[in-house]
Design brief:
This protein is an all-alpha fold. The protein has one domain (about 25-120). The chain is built from 2 helices and no strands. The longest helix is centred in the middle third of the chain and has 96 residues, at about 25-120. The chain is rod-shaped and about 165 Å long.
Length: about 120
């Protein structure tokens, strides 16, 4: 039985050595290349994420600036419109007031003339 086990181990060792064509140096080189490649990919991913974050931040800043500018422009426009309405309303009021007084004067003058003709 001992001979059978020894022979089996020897045959297995020969078959494994003959079929494996395995080199630890190649394996370590492949592992090193894979680690370097993964490291470069990770670095590229981090750089892309950083660039994306910077662009998102710049885009948000532009959006806030645009909205702020639009709100300011709208406020100025509304303020200008209110001033124009105020001026127009004041002008209209003054015109109406002037017309009222002119009509009153005309009416009073007509009354005086009527009184003069009646008296004469």
């Amino acid at each position: 039985m001992k001979k059978f086990i020894t022979t089996s181990v020897a045959v297995a060792a020969l078959l494994t050595n003959a079929q494996a064509d395995f080199d630890f140096g190649d394996m370590f080189t492949d592992m090193k290349d894979a680690a370097i490649s993964m490291s470069k990919d990770a670095k590229d991913s981090v750089t892309s994420m950083k660039d994306g974050a910077v662009e998102t931040s710049k885009s948000a800043e532009r959006t806030v600036s645009t909205v702020s500018s639009d709100a300011k422009d709208t406020s100025v426009k509304v303020s200008d419109d209110i001033k124009v309405m105020e001026v127009n309303t004041t002008k209209d009021f003054l015109r109406q007031h002037l017309i009222f007084h002119m009509m009153r004067k005309i009416h009073l003058n007509l009354q005086r003339q009527t009184l003069k003709t009646v008296v004469l």
